[in-house]
């Protein structure tokens, strides 16, 4: 798994790791602390891997970005996003707050 959020989200992801599973933590927008026990790590051989890109050379970053845009790009990526007009934002915010949304919302300010 890849966790760009951290905090409580990481706590929940750890509970769902399979035997010998790993979660790569790449962000902490949800907080820099998480609640867990030692059991997933001992009983299931779970791993947490911290990913730091701050000191990665620009040449390496560009190579990775190209791969993400091409051969590593998920085929179903277009299925998990929707584009909305700015005028429709209130409806979509309410849907997000009521947990009626999945995926990502892109706001088109020129539509």
TrEMBL record:
This is Zinc-binding dehydrogenase. The keyword Iron does not apply. Transmembrane segments: none annotated. Gene3D superfamilies: Medium-chain alcohol dehydrogenases, catalytic domain, NAD(P)-binding Rossmann-like Domain. Keywords: Oxidoreductase. Its EC number is 1.6.5.-. It comes from Staphylococcus gallinarum. The lineage of its organism: Bacteria, Bacillati, Bacillota, Bacilli, Bacillales. Signal peptide: none annotated. It comes from the Bacteria. InterPro entries: NAD(P)-bd_dom_sf.
